[in-house]
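Exercise 4. Each item below gives a protein and its sequence. For each, produce the structure-token representation.

Item: Cupin type-2 domain-containing protein (Virgisporangium aliadipatigenens).
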Amino acid sequence: MTTVIRAAEAPRFALPGVNFAGGAAPSRGSDQLCVWRLTVDAGHITDTHHTVDRDEVFTVLSGRVRFGPDQPELGAGDVAIIRAGDPIAVANPGSEPAELVVAITAGFTAMTADGTPIGTPPWAA
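Answer:
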């Protein structure tokens, strides 16, 4: 059976400077893969990072993003593969919002910079 999630009906989640539109996830019909659309506000910078226990893939649809202060700036069409355990600090150095599609294996766990478990965020549950 095919599961369809219409853009207008996708669950929405927000953190300071970033917004998530839920796509594939176990609660939405996908046992093995999570996918969501990420919008990063123009000028968003964070001084903290997090890690996840699985490889995570970010595809930039529009705008500019960086995944850490020493990481390259990426634009539309670029893909970043962040390996499990590597720090992630999403920033948008541009003057326009950035749009990305993110994919990761279902059941992943996120952790704060000091190793405190965050668990699986609601957009991927």
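Check: The chain has a mean pLDDT of 96.
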